[in-house]
Amino acid sequence: MLHEHIGLRYNTLRLPPDVAGADAEGYAFSEQDDIFFAANMFLNWGDLCNNVKTYVDKCKTALNLDRSTATMDEIKQFMQRISQTKNLTNSVAKHTTVTTHLSHVIKERGLLQLSLLEQDMVASHNAGDHWNRLLTLLQQAEVTSRDKVRLCVLYYLRYEMASGGDAMPRVQAVLNDLMAAGHTPILQRVRDYYTPLGRPTDDLFADTGVLSSIVKTFVDVGNIYTQHEPVLKRTLLQTLTGTLEGREGNAYSCPYSSANPPTFGFKPTEVMVFMCGGYTYEEAALVHGINQKTVYKPNDLTQMAPNAHVVLGGDRILNSNIFMDALMEGM
User: Fold this and answer.
1) Are 49 and 100 in contact (CB under 8 A)?
2) What does the record list as GO biological process (predicted)?
């Protein structure tokens, strides 16, 4: 959320100059140097806010020393904790300032409503309902031009194949009406991006068959704002279990020569993924969860090599603005 809605550069976040109490030099976010960030960097928004409140209460407790009644031992202990207490108060000030500003951004731009539609589009198939909700959001003044363009692009990706090509003219007309300066050709750029290489956009979204709808009716999807799962999750599952299909439609076999080749696909213990064009923090969180054995089901884990580990890299860390700008520049 920090990178998507504010922007991180070299692990440094700079708030707008009009934010009260903000550090002009910015805030560094590193899991090596920031204990609170390391413990909460992959949490959802609701859990993060709760933990920030707990963090503030911890700071209040640490500073609660009544010097008029304190014993000498208490004063001595407090003096010994001054450096740690100062670090704690600085960290609390940093995270409360950033969280407060992020909360303001979410309310000001109506991001909860936007996110709900985005998650619903990627997790379910209902073209008519999604189109009507999209048009409603596009008329709301608090929704920024960038957010409107992102919603239009997502709808186009979701329904272009299913509509037989009818989605593009409708969405393009909406973009023209919005007068989204500089973004009217973006749908064609999106098409140019995935069509020549045969990228199947259907793989970007959840299953939409009848069985899938029945399952979703009876299975709790958890947090409705975190329904989206990166395609990388499925790709890595197939890689780690030795079932990833090659270009010829066959599973990759063990790359090492052997007099007695295994009858199953090669199951690597170390996987290095390099995302040409960049990766997102959502994908980084996914890889972290895979390495912590919290992403896949127990049955899937038994099909992998023991101690399998994934490393993720790329030439940049993306957010929606960076990706759309790259599309407009021809990648």
Assistant:
1) no
2) vesicle-mediated transport
Q: What is residue 226's DSSP assignment?
A: G
Here the tokens at position 241 are 């279990």
- The answer to whether 131 and 137 are in contact (CB under 8 A) is no
Structure tokens at 175: 């973009």
Q: Which amino acid is at 268?
A: P
- Residue 13 phi, psi dihedral angles, 5° rounding: -115, 130
- b/e per residue 203-239 (b: at least 16 CB within 10 A): eebeeeeeeeeeeeeeeeeeeeeebeebebbeebbeb
For 145-202, the DSSP string reads HHHHHHHHHHHHHHHTTTTTT-HHHHHHHHHHHHT-TTTTTHHHHHHHHHTTTT--GG
- 331 residues of the chain, pLDDT tens digit each: 888 888 888 889 999 988 888 888 899 998 888 899 999 988 888 888 899 988 888 877 776 655 555 565 655 565 556 666 778 788 888 998 999 999 999 999 999 999 999 999 988 888 899 999 999 999 999 999 889 989 998 998 888 876 666 777 888 888 887 765 566 688 888 877 776 555 556 666 655 443 343 334 334 445 677 788 888 999 999 999 988 876 444 445 555 445 554 445 788 999 999 998 899 999 999 999 999 999 999 999 999 999 999 999 999 999 998 988 888 886 5
The Cβ of residue 284 has, within 10 Å, a number of other Cβ atoms equal to: 17
Domain range summary for the chain, segments of one domain joined by +: 1-109, 111-204, 231-323
Does the domain at 1-109 match CATH 3.90.830? Answer given as yes
